[in-house]
Amino acid sequence: MNKTLDLTKSVYDLCTSDPDVIRIMQSLGFDQMANPIILNTAGRVMTIPKGAKARGKDLNHIIGTFEREGYHVMGKERSHHE
């Protein structure tokens, strides 16, 4: 069964519903996702596309990484316009 990653949801929601998201985000250079304080504050308002833009990361690379990990990525179309 494929896992789903909705790019319109907050990082907090994604990480609390699926702890594997934290591991994948860390592998992509988002080490702060493992910090519960940051996850519970900034993570509640931050989405993956917004975080990618803020950190200068390629959103397509992030999406591709999640897809290779077996995720169906939703919200790709809307996220490119944020």
Automatic annotation (TrEMBL):
Domain DUF1858 positions: 6-63
Pfam families with a match to the protein in the record: DUF1858 (PF08984)
SUPFAM superfamilies reported for this sequence: SP0561-like (SSF140683)
InterPro entries: DUF1858, ScdA-like_N_sf
Superkingdom of origin: Bacteria
Listed name of the protein: DUF1858 domain-containing protein
Organism: Paenibacillus profundus
